[in-house]
Amino acid sequence: MTIDDPFRWLEDDGPNTSLFEEDQHRRTLEAMRSDPNWPFIFGQLDRLTRHDEWHVPQIRQGSLAFLRRPPGANQSVLQYIPAASADAVTVYDPGSLSSPHAIDWFSLSQDGRYALFGVSAQGDEWSTLYIYDSVHKRLLDDTIPGARWASVFMPPHANFFYYTRYPVDSEGGRQFYSQRVFRHELGTGLEEDTEVFSDPEVTATFTLCGSSDGNRLVVSTHLGWSRNRLAILTLDGQSIPKTVFEGLSQRMEPFWHHHELYGLYHDPLTGDAVWKWDERGNAWSTVFASPPSEPIEAATAIDSGFVLLRMKDARYQLEYLSHEGDHRKIDLPHGGIGTAQGLSSDPDENTVYFEWTSFDQPLLVYAWRIPDETLEEWGEHHEPVDGIRIWQEFVPSTDGTPVPIFLAQDARRRVSPGPAIVGGYGGFNIAYTPVYSPGIHLWLKSGGLYVVASLRGGSEFGEQWHRAGMLERKQQVFDDMVSVLRHLSSRNYSQPRVLGITGRSNGGLLTGAVVTQHPELMRSAVIGVPLLDMLRYDRFLVAALWRSEYGDPASPRDWQWFERYSPYHHVVPNTKYPAVFIFTSAHDNRVHPLHARKMAARLQKESGSGHPVFLRIEPEAGHGAGKSRVQQIEEEADIWTFQFRQLGLEPR
Predict the structure, then answer these.
(1) E strands, 40-177, where?
(2) pLDDT confidence of residue 236
(3) Do residues 421 and 435 lie in contact, with contact meaning Cβ atoms separated by under 8 Å?
(4) Would the pTM of this model clear 0.70, i.e. be above it?
């Protein structure tokens, strides 16, 4: 394969690239905003996002902290409810600042007194760490830059905490690698912080998990998405870290319960299990094991046992295991068709919280108070969308493997074959399952069919399912998606002339690959914050972290994989490509905007179909997290205007 890269100049963030971006963004907005349906679509999305949105709380010693977006607000605020109180205090409101800011993450100290949280600007995710003292009801003067994706642990009744951060040089410059673990004493400067843990592998990242008594800390060293190691530190300042788990192709998520260490163990051969660490015997033992095809997505400790979030056939199940051996399940809506996440508990209480959403259900937070047999809503109630039919099918892929898909349609507006959109992701061991979206809501109520494809590369059937869609097997993810598109046509649900696809990030790679490999199967494609030049992807921003998932272009073996599917390099002159809408953001610090720029330029030059190719660049946002409500609905209004127009459906 001859490597032709005529738009490499768009990798540079220079003045010519800025002019290119400005021109592309202007033309895209002009095309979308001049559409007579845009005001209606924007108005509907605005209406559907003005509700009060609560997220799952973190609980320590009766105190709660959680993110909440009040009705009509542009950003979520961090709120805190002290123990024995029903009144929430707003700890931090990024909407009060003059420039766009967002809360990226938060954590409570073990005694519930302090809330530690990260705030970034313009969606760049380069968090600065802040500390709220609930006793004195104020923010402390301590601030720590470089706390990107930070993990923190603050022992009970302590004036210090442990945290992760990236290096920051004397001029404020940022580094994307070499994360480390530090100890910070309240009231001191950053220069006095002590480094307590690091790893020679510069792409390693860390997660901290401390015991409730504050005496021990487990550091999880992540080496890609399929393996990690665990080390215990006794927090007396004298002992050296003790490695208690070394995953060669396995990983372990630690958690503490009654001063004992447990782990959620993931193995591609034997499946997932809950393990317990025997400190005297220096060994792990199995508490509960799940079959390889029924993964445990999350586990948390409560006073009387454990709560597990499991999957079966890509549907969610919530289960309770008591110390006495009692095992019970609780029913989730639609038989588990949807998305459950954020499992949260205080290990000294018997309540677990989690988030639930589906095609027809805006985000809810549920509380399960053991031993009750029912779920209780916590926070704001949201009625489900009425009249939506939701069902599951299995599609044979190219190798015969059944791939689950979830379909949704307004039961009163059945048109076959009719306009349909398929979304997919297929990577990084992330389950891709139905969620509520105002845009999908509008699409369904207008008579469209929406499909979520749970492709290989995700976590829906465990680590084997993940590995079946990574590295040299990445093409299988694209083949799965192609099989889904053909299935929709063969079942007369839709036809290529009214069929669209959509995907973001790794899902943007998916949609880019399907567009270049099978442009005849769809009429439209939305490609969001994508990876598209896979021959050079790892040279930019944090992308070297993803070599364990995709491979290393510097390796002759891996180079051959990328040569076969890199979407940017497989754009062929005069090919009849579908209409394409590519979007990215100027401050995306995960996936560099160069991928979107280069792909848009090449498709605009080479496509022989006459269908439009649009590029939208949000000027004050990042990869997605931290976008304001208005930014989100403007972007979504542009995307859905494109889809409605290209697929011939009238929004209503």
Answers:
(1) 53-54, 58-60, 63-69, 77-81, 89-92, 101-108, 114-121, 128-133, 138-139, 152-153, 160-165
(2) 82
(3) no
(4) yes
